[in-house]
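Inputs:
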Amino acid sequence: MTTQEWKFTAKDIALKPDLFLSGHRACAGCGPASVLRLIMKATRGPTIVTEATGCMEVVSSIYPYTSWAVPWIHTAFENAAANASGIDAALKAMKKKGKAKHEHVDIIAFAGDGGTFDIGLQALSGAVERGHDFLFVLYDNEGYMNTGIQRSGGTPTGAATTTTPAGSVNPGKLENKKPIADIMLAHEMEYVATATPYYWKDLLTKVRKGLEVEGPAFLHVFAPCPRGWRSDPAKSIEYSKLAVESCVFPVWEAVNGKRQLSIPSKLISLAPQKKRPVKEYLTGQGRFRHLFTPQNSHILDEIQRATDKHWQKLLQKCEQP
Amino acid sequence: MQKNVKQETLGLNGDEAVAYAAKQCDVDVVAAYPITPQTIIVEKFSEYVANGETKTEFVCTESEHSALTACLAASATGVRTFTASASAGLALMHEILFVTSGSRAPVVMAIANRALSSPLNIHGDHSDSMAARDSGWIQIYVENAQEAYDSIIQAFRIAEDTNVSLPILVGLDGFTLSHTLENVIVLSDEAVRQFVGERKIPAVLTHEGKTVPYKLDPDNPMTMGPIALQNYYFEFKRQQEEGMKNALKKIGEINDEYASLTGRSYGNGLIENYKLDDAEIAVVCVGSTSGTIKVIVDKLREEGIKAGLLRLRTFRPLPVEELRKNLKNIKAAAVMDKSMSFGGLGGAVFHEVRHALYDEPSHPPIINYIYGLGGRDSSPSELRKIFDELVQIAKTGQIASQVRYLGLRE
Amino acid sequence: MSRNEKGWKEISIGGVTSKSSTSFMTGDWKTYMPIIDLEKCTVCLTCVTFCPDGAIRWRPELGKIEFDFGFCKGCGICANECPTKAITMKME
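Outputs:
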């Protein structure tokens, strides 16, 4: 069944049994938990999931309990993509030798900030270069949340984390967010996309497209963390909408390198008056609270400028044929 | 020896012998990263794949850490896996060594033993795999390329035994064995396939309440590699120890089964007793240097000196009973270590052997010789001096110094 | 954590988990609980879609949605996202 044929509504999703089960120990209002639960609604057949050490891995696999209704393996922090490589090789070997039970098995690798931006980047890059057939999903909560909210390569500029605290000298993280989706795009993969849980239809369609690729696919999903961001747990999904509307996290997809804005971001590009100021997104997040002081207001302006610059660059890249 | 088992002699170096054996064992996935002196193993395997001589999925990972991870994940999917490394590569895999053993994945790994940096050294010593002795891997060290070939084949049977279910490391000395051409007697593909058979997978109870084979299978979902808190972690470690205990027996069984097939036996699989029965002085040695020591022992015997060698083939699990049985009546013994344990009293093998004998009502004075680090060669005359020393110790019962360095420039 | 934990000889090797998390009730974590006004609810299923814990279910045969308070952690995402503000969070 191709994505064109896969029509789904909220009702279809609601009736499809959860493969990421209730009873996991994620915080109340956890963005990544919502993301994973949604993504597992888009599976299309036999699926094996592998995961890097991190929040989602820990909350879903506290011995003797598991929240996974599919075969699932965790080994270490930096090697989700290497796990996927091994599983892919095993399935291929079984097929070659006529020992395979299923015609095709989808492999999904989940990893957070650490397992993707930083410690996991090597394995990811290697697995993609070798062309293994798997979908790699980054649930981006912009920090190493499981170990206590330390900064990652995905932490945005100005955010306070426990290793980039807002002090009298340094106003949070000084460095920029690593453009991981662009990096993966440069690997010349067949499918790279960004998504957010608020636009869940877009997210699920992208998961399907990623699974359908015969080879590596990368999905960067924005996943607010109320604990790490010191934001209202009830607003985790809302923040993922604000991130798109303020162009902090635009949603797009690239099929064979050809990049296109997805509808939620496309609408902003067509109606720029709908673009929300970054301030509206940053307000209410405790990790940015220190930016709302007079001595740090220039940083707010810088963040707005940088966001606009990236947005314009993205628009240019998307317009190219 | 079964009369109908056809064997032929090939000219192979240690690495080639290992690759040949792995190919014959019908491995499903090989994920590896090259490092001197193991490179010939991966290169040979790549040739087999390129020429269609094997259906193995060969994954050239971007690092050793990913190589072992991929083997572990493939093994978890239910297939037979093999890899090889050395030195820094094994060190890079270190985290995953523990994960592999904890996951009870029967990965077979050949290690072309090589020194660890720093300074950089590409030549043979045992520091790489000795540093991994607590990782829960079975460790077998070979004396020559023939044994490397035979041990790889045996390794799959040992590791995959459902009461063992532990990964296994076969160590062959870097360059001395890995790169030196020897006559290696090999079995036919068919005979090897018959000996190793199909991988048997132990059964586990899943969260669905089903008892099914321990593998990633969409028909029987299960969760592998959970977080086990203070209330459960300890029990899993004890299980690994039980696997090691079972391996002690299994290694001997497989050695004997293989011997009746091929005519080649390596002591009792755990240790090789070379002229120890009536020996007064003995050397305990791991790896290829044992070959040279055997020649020296023969010479000493000709001179009327009752010398013997205990070649420690299996280092993990430690064959405590064999060590006690064969060494307790010796008058003076020397343990050779091709690695160091800085700040400890001597090297790893010395620790283990002396420790095994500690509770025996009588045991010999034991000294330690650290030798061959960074691939430094030890000449027969140098090695002979060890025995001369032992003769003195046996006579006087006095040890001048417990830990010495053979061939070190002071 | 149960008082009846098994010994090393009884549990499966490799750490394979033996229970589904659906037997672990996270519902007692909550401080606030969602109350739904069925008059306002249009059964759009937005809350069912977004709940991180899968604690809201659509019952088509009853024509309504239903909370599973055994798993609901009281995060309030459902109330926040409901387009008709049919859900309110009340202190338990």
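Remarks. The mean pLDDT of chain B is 96. The domain at 272-405 of chain B is CATH 3.40.50.920 (Rossmann fold).
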